[in-house]
Amino acid sequence: MSEKLFGVFLLLLSVAGVIIGWDLKAPISYEPVGPNAFPVLMFALLGICAAILVVTRRPATDWAPGGALLRIGGLFLVVLAYALTFDKIGFVLATLAMAIPLARLFGASWKQAVLGGSGLGVVLFVLFDKLLDVALPTGQWLKPWLG
Amino acid sequence: MEVLAHLLEGFRVAGAPTNLLIALVGAFLGTTIGMLPGLGPINGVAILMPIAYAMKLPPESALILLAAVYAGCEFGGRISSILINVPGDAGAVMTTLDGHPMAVKGLAGPALSLSALASFVGSVVATVGIVAFAPLLANWALAFGPAEYFALMVLALSCLGGLVGDSLVKALIACLLGLILSCVGIDANSGVYRYTFDLLHLSDGIPFIVVVIGLFAVSELMLMLQSHHARVAPVEMKGRMLFNLQEFMLAKWTILRSSVVGFFIGVLPGAGASIASAMTYAMERRMAGKDHCFGDGDPRGLAAPEAANNASAYGSFIPMLTLGVPGSGTTAVMIGALTLYNITPGPMLFQEQPAIVWGLIASLFIASVMLVVMNISFIKVFIKFLEIPTWLLVPGVAAISMIGVYAIHGTTFDLVLGTLLGGFGYLLRVMNFPMAPFILGFVLGDMMEQNLRRALSISNGEPGILFASPISIGLWIASIALLFGPRLFKALEKTR
Question: Distance between CA atoms of B401 and B396, rounded to whole angstroms?
Fold first, then answer.
């Protein structure tokens, strides 16, 4: 069932892709095949494959049981929040805020999570920013102290 | 002779102190990553590639690092297979069958050292194979025009599509999604913005690193949570650490045979370490006749998959270096690393970038020696890493992945896009869509389109040019055979 639903989604995607792609034309064209041909062809093929997915018999998908699925969704949201805050609040703090809930999801105690998270933030910051010369965001909030 | 001179030059590059150090670090990290269940070579290479780029390593050093990580993973996967009966990566699945029973019998030490030797022989045989065959293939491919190139990429994609995953249509969808994502951004020929939805950040296209981190780091973490359960304690190591002469004599021909077979399987685009190890295991089992204890701790059952998975991993460098068409998901990621440095992979690579190509080949030799020494004498150090708790590993991987993505443009947009792609990748993976065709499609998409358009420009729009030369006709026939062959074969076998 999930695969069929996904097939419907892909079918809609391919229709949208073909419609958007159709109008991608170069103002002045020097070549017989313009910028729209390849993507339109790919979206069309995707549409055919998606239609096969919808009409043929599909095996049932093994989704994780409800509780686990909720935790996996939680993990995704935590990583998404990490991505959103990474630049703004700085690497160390963002990493701490990400590591605590993730460690908890994987069965750490609160103490382990907090210690592990701060350790990770500080150690990785020193390793990458100071030793390996990969610049990491410090976040605006540290500016007054760092000068 | 010319080859030997090039190889010597390669050793000069790979033997430079910094590159030696980089190979050592890569070999060590690779073994560790390969050993940890859930993380394999593709994740390791995906996570480290942006870091190497951000550290401004020169291209040859970056490739040496990634190659050493890849090789190290194939060594490391066996450790958890043997000690905790959980394969460390996909290539080490077969190693559990005889490796773990050996460990349970109190032969953990001999199992680890014998499999390290098998991995080493597999690596060396395959590296010799690269030196022997790669220049020939590259020379042959120089005659390719855009039409042949287009057909070649279709071949690579159908090879992967025909072999992996549980259904052809899913493999095709994965591949098409990759190809479609590669179209996003300004079209190089006409300057038209394609599928950018007026987002400034998309005008240069979706960065390769963003796709790779999403598909192989973020979604991997979600899968790790799905299959998360209490780690089994490793079998305790006691008694002798080294295999004895009897075990070696029993396995020596198995190791050699499996290395050669594994190498040739690896050269085929798409057929990677997991297929090579499964095939050689079955082959050795059949050849052993009645006199064996396969499945119950036979040294040959341990040696065969380990020799084969290393040999095939190394073999997959051949299509990558000579044709610019990766032979496995991991080499697809490495091709992406080359394009980061504005190096166009393909047959010209051997002529234009001899230092990179031969430095990489020489470093495979060097890394193999480092790995076998590490994996036999410092095995106890690596086992300590099995104790890294998952709750620390997962946030660590998340943080390092984000560091890598942030290093390219330093924008929140890339980080968010990578995470969203990761969520999408998780859904695809749960529904058993294979990821290797996806990443291969994304890597090859641009080259494929450019060659198609170039070919059609030459013929003034006449599609017949795609099927004009004998080489392209051969490639098209091979594509069709590879796409439908394996599944047709399976279906026929079922009806019998």
Answer: 8
Write down the pTM of the prediction. Answer: 0.87
Partners of B407 on chain A (C-beta within 8 Å) are 134-135
Q: Among candidates A70, A50, A72, A45, which has minimal Cα distance to A6?
A: A50
- In angstroms, the Cα distances linking B349 to B231, B247, B267 are 45, 43, 18
Angle between helices B41-54 and B17-35 (to 10 degrees): 140
Strands (E), B266-327: none
On whether the CB atoms of residues B240 and B376 are closer than 8 A, the answer is no
Strand, coil or helix: B193: strand
Residue A142 has a pLDDT of 64
Enter the DSSP assignment of A60. P
* Domain residue ranges in chain A: 2-55, 66-146
pLDDT in tens, B165-180: 668 889 899 999 999 9
Q: Does B126 touch chain A (CB under 8 A)?
A: no
Residues in chain B with CB shorter than 8 Å from the CB of A34 are: 190
CB contact B460 to A (< 8 Å): yes
A108 to chain B: which residues are within 8 Å by CB?
A: 389, 391-392
Supply the ipTM of this predicted assembly. 0.92
Residue A6 pLDDT greater than 80, yes or no: yes
Token digits of residue B209: 């690193």
Are B371 and B382 in contact by the 8 Å Cβ rule? The answer is no
Residues 6 or more apart in contact with residue B119 via CB below 8 angstroms: B74, B75, B78, B306, B307, B309, B310, B371, B372, B375
Question: What are the distances in angstroms from CA B100 to CA B81, B87, B247, B252, B274?
Answer: 6, 10, 16, 20, 18
Q: What are phi and psi of B402, to 5 degrees?
A: -65, -35
B228's CB contacts (< 8 A; 6+ apart) are A106, A107, B390
Say yes or no for a CB contact (<8 Å) between B456 and A33: yes
